[in-house]
Amino acid sequence: MSVTVIFGSDAGATRAVASRIAKRLHGRCVDIKTATVEDFESPSLLILGCPTYGFGDLQSDWEERYHLLEDASLAGKRVALFGTGDQFTYPDTFVDAMGHIYDTAVERGAEVVGFTKTEGYDYTESFAERDGQFVGLVLDEDQQPGKTTARIDQWVAGLR
Prior knowledge:
Layout: E1 3-7, H1 13-24, E2 28-31, H2 37-41, E3 45-53, E4 57-58, H3 60-71, E5 78-84, H4 96-107, E6 111-113, E7 116-117, E8 129-130, E9 133-134, E10 137-139, H5 148-159
Parallel strand pairs: 1-2, 1-3, 3-5, 5-6, 5-10
Antiparallel strand pairs: 3-4, 7-9, 8-9
């Protein structure tokens, strides 16, 4: 199985998570700043990661290069998502960016895999929650860094 993890990161937390996930799945990591449409279309499993900034916004590099996702043909492609955010500082927009990426991936024909439970988080609202689950792996490196390894391990095991 070929795996590509495409991520955006400013402070480095999402980059570190992307690297850990890629290593676990023997995949490659691509910063959205250098990604191409082919990077989205070529792997058998595409993983997209983005932090949520401010009040539900995509990370700035994702905003600038979002057209790549919108242009990619993802029909029948397995896509998994992960998002980083701060559930206590932004409880009303927790990991919203992941929800926006999810909607676009589905519109482009992707089969999104890797939904996770919402238990264990303390937030009030999230655009990344659908039918009582998150649309991907959710990590809070600000408030719950001690839970990251176990959450990644469990999520990655479910993707194989």
